[in-house]
Amino acid sequence: FAVLPPLIIYAGMRLAVGDPPTAGHGFTRLPGAAGRAARALHRLPQPVRAGAWLGLLVAAQLFISEEIALTTALAGVLAVLFLAVFGPRRAIRRLGSAVAGLLTAAVVTLLLAGHALWIQFHGPLTQHGALYPPDYYVNDLSTFVTPQSWLFFHTAASAAAAARYQGGITEYLGYLGWPLIILLALSAVACWRSAAGRAAAFTCAVLVVFSLGGHPLVGGTEHDTVNLPWHWIEELPVVATVLPDRLSILADGAAGALLAFGLDRARQALAARQARGPQQAKRPASPALTATTVLAVGVLCCLPLLPRPLPAAGALPVPPGWSAVFARLHLPAGARVLAVPVAVNYLTPVLRWYADTGQPTAMAGGYFIGPGAGGQAYLNGAGIRPTAWYLDELWAAGLPPGNPYVGTARADYLATGTAHGPGALPSPLSAEQVTTDLDAWRPQAVVADATPGSPLGRFLTRLFGPPTVRESSVLGWRLPAGP
Asked: Which residue, among 121, 132, 124, has the nearest Cα to 379 in the 3D structure?
């Protein structure tokens, strides 16, 4: 959800180069209290206005995605830095105003998000270290010109190549296509005399290089003997949590700016050439036609980016009797529930059922990033307990053939890419391991999507005795105290 980064970059640019002549005038004409507030803000010094707006946007982005907030700040710093390099005199004149605006932005951001940041870095569940191994979620050089299957214009070969990308199709973010890459190169040449054009070109290029990670990945092969610039910063605190391939989101923004500059420069050049040309019998093209032609070229080069509708995927509906079982168990507020299938990062139906019903309010497992042993960041916190694996495998064994969760619920599925068929039972788990995991979870109730005769239902009945309640295909046990 990258709606705010362009606004953040624009607010930062207002600090760097000042406001356009009519900036904010439209808001001052609003009626009522909104107009009075806008006029009061407009009377403040420009750096304070721009800084306050920047701080508000950054705080909002922090609560949406801290990673995007950090990469947006990186892109903004690069863009302003290049503007300063290509226009040093103007940068020196704006230095005082920019510093005042940045201080205002910092104050506003800390007022709105400071407490949340303090809890994150100094609270009871602090964590450290990168969640994913470095140089895994990075752009492969081939991704920039290889369209994937979610684009309208692709081939079977390109879709197959994109599907082999190690980060998965949802992280396949680098594609631009040859037409757009060529047009961007021409735009950089056309705008070379413009400080804004050069800044956009260099910002785009640097972000693209950063998106390759610490070592280049080419056709699925990592060249770890070659060090790229990201190699020297990827281990820095906080930066280590960034997935480099997502820098493409900001690189695309810089590419969009460069494309706009280039098309505008091409339109101006064509209009000037026509104005200087000899008057002939044939009427020269009108400015409107010239602008349309230039825009059409830009649209054609962007067509390879046209996406197909996202593929639909089915979700397991809430099991009949799910809410009724919780109602009949009469659990106290916040009771700890072992819900089966146990929710983990790759198996999330229980989280969907909670979203639909509000039950259970506290459960074992989940899809989250949390501190494991020593505070190191991990998916699923300290990891998935063996009993959770086993219960999910038993649940999968009772699913009908063709159910998409049969494979993802198997413990050996992630490790080997293979899965047992429906009805195949997992290897038994030791009683000592089950007792250890239950002692750690301390559930006050167990609720399972299972029937008494299913593999999962039989195991839970042996473990906890006959179910306290049963509604349709859901079994529930209310436990007197955590085991």
From this structure: 132
- SS3 per-residue string spanning the chain: CCCHHHHHHHHHHHHHHCCCCCCCHHHHCCCHHHHHHHHHHHCCCHHHHHHHHHHHHHHHHHHHCHHHHHHHHHHHHHHHHHHHHHCHHHHHHHHHHHHHHHHHHHHHHHHHHHHHHHHHHHCCCCCECCCCCCCCCCCEHHHHCCCCCCECCCCHHHHHHHHCCCCCHHHCCCCCCHHHHHHHHHHHHHCCCCHHHHHHHHHHHHHHHHHCCCCCEECCEECCCCCCHHHHCCCCCCHHHCCHHHHHHHHHHHHHHHHHHHHHHHHHHHHHHHHHCCCCCCCCCCHHHHHHHHHHHHHHHHHHHCECCCCCCCCCCCCCCHHHHHHHHCCCCCCEEEEECCEECCECHHHHHHHHHCCCCEECECCCEEECHHHEEEECCCCCCHHHHHHHHHHHHCCCCCCCHHHHCCHHHHHHCCCCCCCCCCCCCCHHHHHHHHHHHCCCEEEEECCCCCHHHHHHHHHHCCCCEEECCEEEEECCCCC
**CA dihedral of residues 361, 365, 367, 370 (deg, nearest 10):** 100
Closest CA to 483 of 428, 450, 448, 445: 445
pTM reported for the whole predicted model: 0.81
Query: pLDDT tens for residues 124-147?
Result: 878 777 778 888 999 999 999 999
The tokens describing 287, both together, are 């400015």
Residue 146 corresponds to which tokens in the numbers above?
Answer: 């290889």
For residue range 407-449, list pLDDT tens digits in order. Answer: 666 544 444 334 444 456 677 888 999 999 999 999 999 999 9
Residue with tokens 């104005």: 275
